[in-house]
Every structure is written in C-alpha cells, then in structure tokens.
Amino acid sequence: MIRRSVGFNMEKRWARPSQIRVRKPPSLMPTDPMSIHSIEVELWSWSLDPDAVSVGAAHALLSDDERARAARFVKGIDRRRYIVGRAGLRRVLADYLDADPRDLRFDYNEWGKPRLHPDLQSVFRFNLSHSAAEAVVAVSEQADLGVDIEEIRPLQEDVASHFFSAAECAELANVLEAERLDAFYRCWTRKEAFVKAHGSGLSVPLQSFDVSLTAQEDRGLLVRLDHGIGSLDAWEVVNLDVAPGFCGALAVRSQGRDVRLRYRNRLAWSANMASMM
Fold this sequence. Notes:
- The protein is 29% helix and 22% strand.
- The chain has 277 residues and is α+β, with helices and mostly antiparallel strands.
- The protein has 2 domains: 8-17 and 38-142 and 263-277, CATH 3.90.470.20; 144-256, CATH 3.90.470.20.
- The strands form 4 sheets. It has a 4-stranded mixed β-sheet with strand order 4-5-1-11, with helices on one face. A 3-stranded antiparallel β-sheet has the order 6-10-9, covered by helices on one side.
- 38% of the residues are buried.
C-alpha cells in the first residue's frame, strides 16, 4: 500500500473551501533518515468551477500567452476551467519557489511537456492534469513524473482496442461487465500517466508497455516495458486517491526508489485567491 503522510485527512481534503486554508508546503527533501532512499511527491487538487469573482482573480495571474489561449476557447465553461487550472498551477508552484504566481515562466521540451523555465533555476518537477471540474498537480524535486485524472463516464465506442496493448485488452475482456468501466479508466489513467512522465509524448508506442487493471493493488502497476523504452525497474506507477466519480494515477521515474505520496490540502479558491493579488 502507498504510505501517506500523517497529516492527511480524507474528510478535511473534501471539505468546503471555506473550511480550508492553503498552507505553504515545506521542502520535499526527505528529513526522515528512513526516507533517504525514497522519492517524495506532493499532490494538490482543486475545483475548476469556483465563483465568478475567483475566476476573475485567477485570470489576473495568467501570462499574456495564457490569456490569449483562454480567449480562443469557444465554450465559456472550457475557458473558465482553463483559466482556473493554469492559475491553480501557478499558485502551487509559486509557494514552492517563494515567488509571485505572475512571475513564473514555463518552458517545453520537444514533445510539449511543460517545465519551469531554466532562468528560474528550480529543481522542482511537476505535472498537471484536469478532467471535467477537477484538477490535480503532482510536484517533486527528486524525479520526473506524470499524473492523470479522468472523470468516469460511459464510453460511446471501443476505445480500448485503439489505445490498449493486446495484454491489456485481454485483461479488460475478462473483467465482469459491471466492473469493466472502472477497469477501463484504471488502465487509461495509468498509461497516460506513464506517457506523460516519460516526456516523449506519443513517440512512446502504447503497445510497448502494459499496466495492470487491478483495483486491489495501489502500486507496482507497470508490469511490462519494452527495452527500447526503458528499464521496468526504473519506473513506478501508483494509484491515486481522487474525488468520487474520478480515477487517477501517478507515474514516477523512481530508479528503484520507494515513492512516498503526500496529499496536501485542497485549494480553497474563494477564501484565498484575493490574498494572492
């Protein structure tokens, strides 16, 4: 089972925003002698559907190019969720860097994976995912990572045969029909998290690795990896504890080290956004 920090509280995590205050996180570098060979990953989550006042404040945190992209969304709900997602990412990372969220700059590798701009001289690695009205960002200063969250919705077509490996399709076919939808999303999020962590986009063939679809295990979920992609022992894929009605996974280039998750307080937009201005 994945070890969680002592301060994690499920009821508090999903409490109303007015009940929560954002805490500035400490350094992720291990302080426990027993964790010297482990990788610390912190996870933050927030709603992408706050009130209108908070959306306006979130918009003020964005860069010019982010505002331009927001303006290109046709649907208002997609535009608002993009704004709040990007502002949330800026708020989280700014806490680690002790910086103004508006001052952060991002860079991208050749496959489009985002990272903090080298000028910021930061060792923090991060990855953001969002689906429907939920967002989650994973942060570590010790390893590359990727995170994925998906709303569990009925499927209108056979997606698995196009994106899953033969072994994954066979495992999915053997799942009871009543449990198949959840199993599909466990596979989808685990594969997506691995591709994002690898950082090479769709140059990583989806048939080149297998993930487990099990709901009984929380870790060790990458079960096969072609040698041309990397060593299986160098990666860890774990299940995430996310909002009801969603499925989530995290992949970490662990190099054989243990992965320790710390779930941080859920961001409270209406209570805290104004204080960032």
